[in-house]
Amino acid sequence: MIRLASSSPTRAMLLRDADIDFFQESVDFDEDNIVASSPKNFVYQAAIGKYEANLKKFGSREYPLLVADTVVTSQNQILRKAKCIDDARNILLTQSGNITSIITCMIYDSKYMKMVDISVTDYLFDSFDFDDVEDYLLSGEWRGKAGACMVEGFCKKYIKSVKGNESTAMGLNVELLKRFINI
Fold first, then answer.
1. CB 117 within 8 A of CB 105
2. CA-based Rg of the chain, rounded to a whole angstrom?
3. Are 5 and 168 in contact (CB under 8 A)?
């Protein structure tokens, strides 16, 4: 049994789909004060911040602790979670017709081992249809998503090519995690 220190329903779904026993319980961590020189540095700092906050609250000895953070980058910009619909529109249009990298840092800590991983999945997106973008924005599904991006949803039909694991892009590299835990 793993303690998933994340409120993400997508991360929970990934663990369920991978038949990994878990429960969700987490402490919030404010990412707004992170200053980073690169997307990988940002996602690492965010994951470490979440890890330290949750380790302080829960420890990692009773149940292994799993934390993760994801960031999206396109056109040399870190695309964080959109704060409003206009921000989401600009973030999506930055990705439209371009290569978008989705980077996830995952930390797994148990009494037997500690693993820190940064994985990247690159997508080449076709140009987004403006009406589709507007419908997606009105749906609100972009809220709380790094880069306002849902490769399993809105963006799926625009994927021209992919390099990496879809689970990484969805917030947790379960393929790698499964190799390190006893299921």
1. yes
2. 16
3. no
Which of 39, 36, 67 shows the shortest CA–CA distance to 53?
67
Give the tens place of pLDDT for each residue, 145-174: 889 988 888 999 999 999 999 999 999 999
Alpha-carbon gap, residue 171 to 47, rounded angstroms: 12
Cα angle, residue 134 at apex, residues 132 and 140 outer, rounded to 5°: 105
3-state secondary structure of 73: strand
What pTM, to 2 d.p., does this model score? Answer: 0.89
Residue bearing tokens 């809220």: 143
- The answer to whether residue 69 is catalytic is yes
Integer Cα distance of 40 and 26 in angstroms = 23
| Given the residues 69, 86, 87, 122, the one annotated as active site | 69
Give the C-alpha separation, 53 to 17, whole Å.
27
The pLDDT tens digits for 35-59 are: 888 999 999 999 999 999 999 988 7
